[in-house]
Structure formats: structure tokens, C-alpha cells
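Ops channel
N.P.: pipeline sanity check, posting one input/output pair.
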């Protein structure tokens, strides 16, 4: 388990944003505000009506104030590809973690 972002550089990570998006990619870099740069990134979109949809994002920047959780991706299946397990999953979308209160 990594305790700092420097230990996750050039590794595959999944992050949950404050608005409920689940984004996976390779961490290229970050700054002091925790803004993250991901390459080969994609978003997993879940719904009850259809199987999980994988939306390719490519090179992607995430603002640090929009990051709720960061996790290193580890392979759990015998062939090292977790995506096959997720293709038929149906689930409720993740609700926003933080909502603006006015």
C-alpha cells in the first residue's frame, strides 16, 4: 500500500471523484495541490439498465479538489485482466461524495 503519491507514479490507479466518477489510468504526475495527470485513462460508468460502460479518456487531468479516493490497481484474476469480470456488472451509479451547499 502506498502512503504517498510518489509511490504510485507510473502505476495503474483508480480514483473516485467527488462527483461520483470512477476513473482508472496510469499516474504520470501530480503537483502540490494534488492535481493528477493520468495516461491511458478510462471511466467506468455503471447503471441498472445496462452493463458497465468503459469510456476511453486518454490523457486526462483531474483537479486535486475533485479527488475523493485514490487506490492502486492490482490484478486479481489468473490472466491479470479485471475488466472481463466487470463487463456484465450492473449497479447503481455512485452518488456525489460532496455536494455544494448554498
Amino acid at each position: 500500500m502506498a502512503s504517498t503519491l510518489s509511490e504510485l507514479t507510473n502505476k495503474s490507479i483508480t480514483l473516485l471523484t467527488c462527483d461520483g466518477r470512477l476513473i482508472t489510468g496510469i499516474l504520470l504526475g501530480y503537483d502540490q495541490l494534488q492535481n493528477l495527470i493520468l495516461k491511458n485513462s478510462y471511466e467506468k460508468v455503471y447503471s441498472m439498465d445496462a452493463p458497465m460502460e468503459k469510456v476511453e479518456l486518454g490523457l486526462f487531468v483531474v483537479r486535486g479538489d475533485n479527488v475523493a479516493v485514490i487506490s492502486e490497481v492490482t490484478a486479481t484474476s489468473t490472466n491479470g485482466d479485471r475488466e472481463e469480470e466487470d463487463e456484465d456488472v450492473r449497479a447503481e451509479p455512485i452518488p456525489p461524495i460532496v455536494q455544494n451547499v448554498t
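N.P.: looks fine end to end. The longest strand covers residues 36-45.
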